[in-house]
Amino acid sequence: MNMQAEAVRVNQLRGISEMQRVLVQDVQASPPQVHEGRVIHLYSNGSASISFDFVNTVRDRHLLDDHGHVDIHNVRPEL
Asked: What is the structure's pLDDT at 5?
């Protein structure tokens, strides 16, 4: 039996809000790259659904988990 709680959607998490413009850092790229997008959904497990400005399959391979979410640690508000 899985005792881990399912992630639930939240409006704000670690200073990031839904619908906010953000920068997402891809540290696996060489050199590291920053991609722009908008937060669509935030989840209590520290992940976010991001709508990126441009299609980039390499970035997606590096940043997206099995559910298509990004770890919020890679996300910061756009200035």
From this structure: 66
Structure tokens at 63: 């940043």
Which residues lie below 8 Å from residue 38, measured CB to CB, with a gap of 6+? 19, 20, 21, 22, 50, 51
Model pLDDT for residues 30-66, shown as the tens digit of each residue: 999 999 999 999 999 999 999 999 999 999 999 999 9
CA-based torsion, 13, 40, 57, 47: positive or negative: positive
Listed by start position, the domains of the chain span: 19-77
How far is it, in rounded angstroms, from Cα 60 to Cα 28?
11
